[in-house]
Write a structure and sequence with these properties.
Alpha-Beta Plaits, Arc Repressor Mutant, subunit A, alpha+beta, 2 domains, four-stranded antiparallel sheet
């Protein structure tokens, strides 16, 4: 999909203010409401906009410990990876799971837990029990330096 400046502006605004109403969005980008709404719907239908979410403060939910966990697998087969991915996708503590390269690990997962006891239970009772997991290396987040969800629309090709 070819994006013009209006589409780019719509994406930039909606990534920061997903609850903005159509009239305010149209005013902000300099379009009338009808064409603005048509553009938003076209961006949704094209799959460029994949959804709208509320961002929740993990600490206020009591999830004060965040960890990045590198997971090594015993075999690099589609079946082994599919089993691992299915297993971690149902764990509510897992916020993100990435298949990676360039490390001694095959996956990096980001988890949010209450405390070290909660992390230990997740690690010993769930993660290390997934078939094929041979190594786990944990790093704990001290502070978020950059924490954004918005993608740079202007730098996209």
């Amino acid at each position: 999909m070819q994006l013009d400046r209006y589409d780019q502006q719509i994406l930039e605004v909606l990534q920061v203010e997903g609850r903005i109403n159509n009239q305010d969005l149209a005013d902000r980008i300099g379009l009338s409401p009808s064409p603005c709404l048509r553009r938003v719907r076209a961006l949704e239908e094209s799959g460029l906009i994949v959804g709208y979410r509320a961002l929740v403060d993990a600490k206020k939910l009591g999830l004060s410990l965040m960890a990045l966990v590198h997971i090594s697998m015993d075999r690099h087969t589609p079946e082994r990876f599919a089993n691992f991915e299915a297993s971690v996708s149902v764990l509510p503590e897992v916020l993100e799971c990435l298949l990676i390269t360039g490390q001694d690990a095959d996956y990096q997962i980001k988890v949010a837990v209450r405390d070290m006891d909660h992390y230990q239970a997740l690690l010993l009772n769930k993660l290390t029990r997934i078939e094929g997991v041979t190594g786990v290396h944990s790093s704990f987040v001290l502070r978020r330096v950059v924490d954004r969800t918005a993608l740079s629309v202007a730098s996209a090709p």
